[in-house]
Amino acid sequence: MTGTAGSLRLIPQTGQASGVVSLDAAPANTWVPVPGTDLLLPVAGLYEVTADVQGSIGGTGSLTNAIVDARVFDVTAGAAVPMAERRVILFTDQSAEPVVHGVQADASAAALYQVASPTTVRVEGSWRTDAGATSGRALWAHNFRFKRIA
Questions:
Q1: Integer Cα distance of 124 and 35 in angstroms
Q2: Contact predicate 95/24, CB 8 Å
Q3: pLDDT at position 52 over 70
Q4: How far apart are CA 34 and CA 13, in angstroms?
Q5: What proportion of the chain, given as a percentage, has pLDDT over 70?
Q6: pLDDT at position 139 over 90
Q7: For residue 23, what is the DSSP state?
Q8: CA dihedral 36, 41, 46, 51 (to 10 degrees)
Q9: Other CB atoms closer than 10 Å to residue 7's CB: what's the count?
Q10: What is the Cα–Cα distance from 125 to 22, expressed in whole angstroms?
Q11: d(CA 7, CA 129)
């Protein structure tokens, strides 16, 4: 082919990934990458990035502020994507009984994100508990996706 049509290059307009990570081995208040969720925003432009996530946390007895958070992180820039952090779980139970807790919840984070060059983004998770012992901390990124807008 010659001319303009021969030099056209198709650029992906969308992308999608998913993954899961156990947060049990990570210290509290530490952001942990969700394996399998690295997405390449292929060219400069404005993108809508959306992460549909599910968190899990468990414990026994009294718990204060058992928390699981998720965010979209720009790996290329080394910074969180603005307005793309969500509290997935906030659970408190002041029961004196040795009740076993298991909490799961879903959240979505979506943001418009402008990039100046090809950029890799991913989902990360974090946890913390103000009082009490927790376990079974995990974050699933069921549907992490982007759509190029401009």
A1: 9
A2: no
A3: yes
A4: 23
A5: 92
A6: yes
A7: -
A8: 0
A9: 8
A10: 9
A11: 56
Q: From CA 85, how far away is CA 126, in angstroms rounded?
A: 11
Alpha helices in the chain (DSSP H): 3-6
As to burial, measured by CB atoms within 10 angstroms (0-12 exposed, 13-18 middle, 19+ buried), residue 2 is: exposed
Rounded to an integer, the average pLDDT of 110-134 is: 96
For residue 13, the one-letter residue type is Q
Sign of the four-CA dihedral 116, 120, 123, 124: negative
Listed residue (114, 104, 108, 112) closest to 143, CA to CA: 108
Whole-number Å distance between alpha carbons of 52 and 86 = 10
Q: How many CA atoms lie within 13 A of 1 on its CB side?
A: 7
Whole-number Å distance between alpha carbons of 101 and 12: 43
- Residues 81-108 have pLDDT tens digits of 999 999 999 999 887 778 888 999 999 9
Q: Take residue 141 and report the two structure tokens written for it.
A: 């990124």
The residue to which tokens 């982007």 are assigned: 146
